[in-house]
Design brief:
Length: about 150
């Protein structure tokens, strides 16, 4: 991800009712973008070390965001970004973590397809609060084959 991608990421995020701000992303994290042949942003994803400092979610490497433009959804792009982020985490840790809004069934299905297991539910994990519902803390064991999943990398 380059600084010139930031505006496209902001616009994509806003179009989805979210507020991702790539200028706040850290330097020591996995940041990926997918573009079509014309250079238009298809989607982006990131993974990073996070220390939530709460009773449920431990410090570790977390999948910390993925967004795919509406017209490109359901084509495997989120799986592709997830596989790449898990491979990056597997080079650094034996477990990968993520938190997902319990109402986000698509994200929960995606994480399950990669072997993530539910650890806890709460109204927040660290600084992430779940408006109108609860969040799900998920963990994937990365020991053995790096990024091992049932989803295909395309």
């Amino acid at each position: 991800m380059k600084a010139l991608d930031h505006e496209a990421i902001r616009l994509l995020s806003r179009s989805m009712g979210r507020s991702s701000e790539p200028s706040h992303f850290g330097d020591e994290e996995c940041q990926l973008v997918l573009k079509d042949e014309g250079g238009r942003l298809i989607g982006w994803g990131r993974a990073a070390w996070w220390e939530p400092q709460d009773n449920y979610a431990p410090a570790g490497y977390y999948l910390s965001g993925v967004e795919i433009a509406h017209e490109f959804q359901q084509r495997g792009y989120a799986s592709r970004l997830t596989a790449a982020r898990l491979a990056w985490i597997a080079e650094r840790a034996q477990q990968a973590w993520c938190v997902v809004n319990a109402r986000n069934s698509e994200s929960l299905r995606l994480q399950a397809s990669f072997g993530f297991k539910e650890i806890a539910r709460a109204d927040h994990f660290g600084s992430v609060w779940f408006t109108g519902g609860s969040g799900v803390l998920l963990r994937k064991d990365l020991t053995g084959a790096a990024g091992n999943s049932t989803a295909e990398l395309i």
